[in-house]
Design goal:
The complex is a heterodimer of chains A (about 150) and B (about 130). By secondary structure, chain A is of the alpha/beta class. In chain A, about 35% of the residues lie in helices and about 15% in strands. Chain A has a single domain, classed as Roll (CBS-domain). Chain A is built from six helices and six strands; from the N terminus they run H-E-H-E-E-H-H-E-H-E-E-H. In chain A, the strands form two sheets. Chain A has a three-stranded mixed sheet with strand order 1-2-3. A three-stranded mixed sheet of chain A has the order 4-5-6. In chain A, strand 4, helix 5 and strand 5 form a beta-alpha-beta unit. The radius of gyration of chain A is 16 Å and the shape is globular. Chain B is an alpha/beta fold and about 130 residues long. Helices cover about 40% and strands about 25% of the residues of chain B. In chain B, the strands form two sheets. In chain B, strands 1-7-6-5 form a four-stranded mixed sheet. In chain B, strands 2-3-4 form a three-stranded mixed sheet. The chains are: A alpha/beta (about 150), B alpha/beta (about 130).
Chain lengths: ~150, ~130
């Protein structure tokens, strides 16, 4: 199968790192850094995906701490996460997912089950990064940092 | 974040670069060789003229015929450069205001805009994590 013929499910990383909504913000920062990942998926008490926290948003929150009175001892992820999760279906061409990421200025996108009317806010199957698509195109292994 | 820290305290030194007329295939190999997400593009005088990220390369691929193109054809030219001597908090704010993931740290002298380091979102995250441990 050529790189351009591959689907999202062929290239996605099958684990999306998550945290609960009541995880402390500072702990989420540590998770993002320790795992060198772009973002965390935020789950509610029923393990449904309700938001995400990216590295950019984490840094924004930290930068805003100078003008807002955040109490980092108690600030939770739920208070600073974004609720719209960028997502694609696993069954579309990876190159189409790359185009969606480019259009939306994203470096990675979550791979979610197709909406079947029964399961709202399910957990993602995984995550697809622009680097992974690119490395597949180039036929080389690629990193995520930098 | 420690308010007394300067950008140069947490930036990473040394900048991976390519030349403006370098083929994209070589750019791709360099990104992979150094395991990085972006590199800066220099003109013949060593002045930073642009930046190429993995996202730029993905866009070039989607547009087609990328193997025959050079760095200057796809680089982002509006790079943001700062001095390493400004407060870290100011550097972070510049990054956020411009919605970018990295700033090029330059020094003046005989070769203005000569790159000496990079402050990336990863550097900031590393510092945040260190401070919260």
């Amino acid at each position: 199968m050529t790189a351009s013929a591959k689907q999202v499910r062929d290239l996605m990383h099958i684990t999306a790192t998550s945290c609960s909504a009541d995880t402390l913000f500072l702990e989420a920062v540590r998770i993002l850094h320790r795992n060198t990942i772009e973002s965390l998926i935020v789950l509610d008490s029923h393990s449904r995906a309700i938001g995400m926290l990216s590295r950019l948003e984490a840094v924004q929150t930290y930068a805003r701490s100078g003008i807002r009175t955040y109490n980092f001892d108690t600030l939770t992820v739920a208070e600073v996460m974004r609720s719209n999760i960028p997502q694609v279906s696993p069954n579309i061409p990876a190159i189409s997912a790359a185009q969606i990421m480019l259009d939306q200025g994203l470096r990675e996108i979550y791979v979610m089950p197709n909406k079947d009317g029964e399961t709202s806010n399910p957990q993602p199957f995984g995550v697809l990064s622009i680097n992974k698509v690119l490395s597949e195109i180039n036929g080389v292994s690629n990193g995520e940092e930098g | 974040m420690g308010s007394t820290k300067l950008v140069r305290d947490i930036m990473h030194r040394g900048v991976i670069t390519c030349w403006v007329d370098e083929p994209l295939i070589d750019v791709v190999h360099r990104l992979n060789e150094y395991n990085i997400n972006a590199l800066f593009v220099l003109d013949e005088s060593g002045r930073a003229e642009g930046v190429i990220s993995q996202t730029d390369l993905a866009r070039a691929h989607v547009e087609g015929n990328w193997q025959k193109r050079t760095a200057e054809e796809i680089m982002t030219t509006d790079i943001v450069t700062i001095s390493g001597d400004i407060p870290l908090e100011a550097g972070i704010q510049i990054m956020l205001d411009n919605r970018i993931h990295r700033l090029l740290i330059v020094q003046g002298g005989l070769t203005p805009n000569r790159p000496v380091g990079v402050l990336s979102l990863s550097d900031v995250m590393r510092e945040m994590a260190k401070e919260t441990e």
